[in-house]
Amino acid sequence: MSILDNFSDWKAFLGDRVEQAKQAGMESDTLQNVAYQIGSYLSEQVDPKNDQERLLKQLWDAGDQQQQQSLASLMVKLVQNRTDANAGS
Question: Pfam families, alphabetically (predicted)?
């Protein structure tokens, strides 16, 4: 089973990578740029494995570059909020 098969696993994986990047000193702007590049790659190269990923791909494909960057930023924020909430537990 791949992390792409389950959206919760994908969010956990992405959250872990975001946390590692922050701990390594990656600046927020750089992190957002990397998230955009990953989103572009996934949209072009990876078939969606579930309904959530299909929706994200459709939103990505419908948007222009600025909107795609916003979507990537929101995904980072989503997983950061998950990580921050778990740290407070």
Answer: DUF3243
Domains along the chain? Answer: 4-85 (1.10.760)
Q: At what angle do helices 65-87 and 28-45 cross, to 10 degrees?
A: 110
With a CB cutoff of 8 Å and minimum separation 6, the contacts of 43 are 57, 60, 61
Rg (CA), the chain: 13
Instruction: Tell me how far apart the terminal alpha carbons of the chain are, to the nearest angstrom.
Output: 29
Tokens 């995904």 map to which residue? 75
Spatial separation of the C-alpha atoms in residues 78 and 24, rounded to whole Å: 20
Pairwise CA distance, residues 1 & 10, whole Å:
12
Tens digits of per-residue pLDDT, 20-41? Answer: 888 899 888 888 888 898 888 8
Mention every residue, 6+ apart, whose C-beta is less than 8 A from residue 72.
32, 35, 36, 38, 39
